[in-house]
Amino acid sequence: MTQDTAADTAKPNRRRRSGGRAGNMRGRGPAIVQPSWHLPEYLDNPIEPLTGEGVEKVHDAAMRILEEIGIQFLHDDAIAILRREGCTIMADGVTVRMGRDFVMEKITTCPSRFTITPRNPDKAIEIGGNRAVFGQVGSPPNYSNLDEGRRTGTMKAFTDLIKFTHYFDCIHFQSGYPVEPIDVHPSIRHLDSIRTKMVLSDKVSHAYSLGVERIEDAIEMVRIAGGLTDEAFDATPRMFTNINSTSPLKHDWPMLDGAMRMAARNQPTVVSPFTLAGAMAPVTLAGAIAQQTAEGLAAIVLLQCVRPGSPAVYGSFTSNVDMKTGAPAFGTPEYVRATQMSGQMARFYGLPLRASNACAANFPDAQAAWESGNSLWACTTGGVNMIYHSAGWLEGGLCASYEKFMIDCEMLQQMQHYLKPVGVTDADCAVAAIEDVGAGGHFFGTPHTQDRYETAFYSPFLSDWSNFENWEDNGSQRTEERANRLWKRILEEFEPAPIDAAIVDELDAFVAKRKEEGGAPTDF
Amino acid sequence: MTQDTAADTAKPNRRRRSGGRAGNMRGRGPAIVQPSWHLPEYLDNPIEPLTGEGVEKVHDAAMRILEEIGIQFLHDDAIAILRREGCTIMADGVTVRMGRDFVMEKITTCPSRFTITPRNPDKAIEIGGNRAVFGQVGSPPNYSNLDEGRRTGTMKAFTDLIKFTHYFDCIHFQSGYPVEPIDVHPSIRHLDSIRTKMVLSDKVSHAYSLGVERIEDAIEMVRIAGGLTDEAFDATPRMFTNINSTSPLKHDWPMLDGAMRMAARNQPTVVSPFTLAGAMAPVTLAGAIAQQTAEGLAAIVLLQCVRPGSPAVYGSFTSNVDMKTGAPAFGTPEYVRATQMSGQMARFYGLPLRASNACAANFPDAQAAWESGNSLWACTTGGVNMIYHSAGWLEGGLCASYEKFMIDCEMLQQMQHYLKPVGVTDADCAVAAIEDVGAGGHFFGTPHTQDRYETAFYSPFLSDWSNFENWEDNGSQRTEERANRLWKRILEEFEPAPIDAAIVDELDAFVAKRKEEGGAPTDF
């Protein structure tokens, strides 16, 4: 149950807690009854569209890109490190070629699975192996809900969406900002945003690699929230960042800088090339995955040079574009195959894998559900370890939808239930129960059913399984309308994760100091 | 393209063809551009939740049900046949016990794959092996669309839905009535319904096993439509029927009678026990699948006794109920696992497998899409050969929705495209193209892209991939609203499959004669 930790009495900052409305809810019970927090595990074999030979061919193409074409690193320290390691720096001073033996040797120090421990150790997540963990939508500039329509992101919406992220146990980590809080100046936005994430939730958090100050401030705030010394912080992963290459073939300064700072402190970086087939990558999936692999491994190699053994994740964001408009599409057949192929490459290199629950739809309707459904199936059949953008994503990532968040959590819960093993004991095979019931009977009241019915099946919170007449009598509510009612109840009953008042004070003091210093410099 | 055969000039019965509106469509082009007719093939390994030992345990449970409990056959001829074959008939005269050696020996004559050839041999479908074929929703009493709401079935709605069935190349066969035409008297309903199916479409058709007259009339009409002699009809499968056991453990007279008549003429029967876990079957999936297997194999054994080598299909309809209300649920985690487990059992017995694209939703919204999406993924990851109820199903099968039909066909096309192999030639791996584009470039205009962009990606007909602003300018159309416009265009441009006027005359004469004779006797 999500409220397990809410019984703690130390809740110094229940900001926005709608105490006055709690009275209205008496007798209604919680908004939903959730399955307990658990980290799903893949027990099925992944789906593998490539043969072993196919994997070798994509690998060979990736290695040729690294050896013969090279990747640009727009960061002097990165170039200096790679030069020192024996890579060839081309005449332009930024293009690096690296041999396949060097690449394959360097990635052996990158762990194939690791744990990230947030301020609440009970919410630690394992990344890699056959684990699957899910995070909410990150980085959209807009949000929407049925009441307000679609609007530019605000700190209020950010806070609401972080509450959902904390509330649902099927969400295991906090990705990037669930919506960009445009109403907070960029120089101090990261301070307010990370404070909100740290104080409302005790789940693992992402931090952006967007210049020195933002990542260093985030590291410091995660350290403070965890009540950790610098040494304790560095001892094991506590947070993570995600970087994207500027495809094709380029890693920019801000992301490299943040990732190297994270690696230096033993913190994980997810490297997710933005290889949209037909636009920033070849129109062929094998070509796009080869390029994704080359761009991803190039950065992972650099991070292993910075600190051998620091964790990194092979990120897959390969999808296709609408060839009529160039717009990115998600949840497509190509996206599914690209994700499954990425799974094969990640396992080939012994690296954890990240992909996304993405869609292109503009509204939380059938298209949004089939596209997200395809993306989710892509992730689970591909053996994806970190599923980004799991809840709330619409419009190719340009909008965080409150209603879609609810819809996605329903789909996530179902998928996570599906991933559990099926029992085949003698009692499960139920020959005696079948004999007892006999021809023409039914199983409703039998002991075999009574002993199991409460937990035998997954119980949805958003699906309406009533018959048409009852559904109509209840107002013919569409799924998005039910989702709309649900998120309001969740906000009403939300309880933040417990946190020591002293830690909140320390966070606030840090934020105040950094604001006084001007936060992260901007030119406006 | 679906219109390949429409160029034929012999179209004596373009009933309802909206010739007057054709002018309106000039310059608009076809409603959709479809992928060509093809029979999808599974190239990936299926997902198998059971270990080999687990399969043996479910098999053993099924065999114990057949050996120790027995199955009721409410048909004297069936009992006589099984008695003659050495089965034990219990004192009640209807319960049959059969030994596992007998069962396993009998099913060896049942083909693991076969072909059904309709009146147009180009539309022949293969059932079994690694083939997947899809049919539309069958048997709902109601239909709905956004214009009319939800109504009791009519012959007009039946006809519209058969037109959709014929129109979409992702639909390979005609299942049962797409909606029950309640406005036609039951005594002659099968005559009008099958005539409509035969004349509008040249795809394989189902016929109901509901008493002697209905199945015999259907056989005769399929024979006439194909221009076949009795001998030619019997030489190979031309149609099929589906029977459901009355779970638990009972096969009723009308279905057994129809199936035995079909087997006698070498025509296939799909045996689909209605084993809803928690209601008519154990609450445990292993128990429900064991019961499904026992009920299914019992009938298949009987049909092999009637005519060794006649084709049959192992049908899976196992899902779970809402334990609060007893209502059946579909597209659930349990449904996915049950379907995958059924795939393992079907392959264990060397039998083709049928399952469904089902959902419980009351409206073609997000819930409908995630439930159907889960069902479709269940089918394809389970290796299902015949996917029933692929398009149009709502409300647990109580309603055929016009808009859901369009949504499902979009999802089917995407799934069928996904099932195609991924290329990994050197040209696919695209190292040269990546070198040509270089860092900071893009792939839009490159020869590698230009040579492939028209066919590189699946192109949806119902997804709206425009950005939010354009989507809003176009009226913020929900998926179901776009689907509503689409089915109207499809009905406008519909062309029936070409058919010889003489054959239509012969069908009509048969229908007239049988109506004069009273059709199938009813007591009202």
Can you summarize this structure?
By secondary structure, chain A is α/β, with parallel strands linked by helices. The first copy, chain A, is built from 20 helices and 20 strands.
Characterise this structure.
The structure is a homodimer of 524-residue chains. Chain A has 524 residues and is of the alpha/beta class. In chain A, 44% of the residues lie in helices and 12% in strands. The first copy, chain A, has 20 helices and 20 strands. In chain A, the strands form five sheets. In chain A, strands 6-18-17-14-13-11-10-9 form an eight-stranded parallel sheet. Chain A has a four-stranded mixed sheet with strand order 2-3-1-12. In chain A, β19 and β20 form a beta hairpin. In chain A, α13 crosses α19. The N terminus of chain A is likely disordered. At the A-B interface, α2, α10, β15, α11 and α12 of A face α2, α10, β15, α11 and α12 of B.
Outline the biggest β-sheet of chain A: 8 strands, parallel
**Poorly predicted spans of chain A:** 1-26
Global morphology of chain A: globular
**Strand order across the biggest sheet of chain A?**
6-18-17-14-13-11-10-9
What percentage of residues of chain A falls in helices of 4 or more residues? 40-55%
Q: Structural class, from secondary structure content of chain A?
A: alpha/beta
Give the strand tally of chain A: 20
Number of helices of chain A: 20
Oligomer designation: homodimer
Radius of gyration of chain A: 24 Å
Most extensive interface, chain pair and sizes: A-B, 126 and 126 residues
N→C terminal distance of chain A: 45 Å
Mean pLDDT of chain A: 94
Query: What is the strand content of chain A?
Result: 5-15%
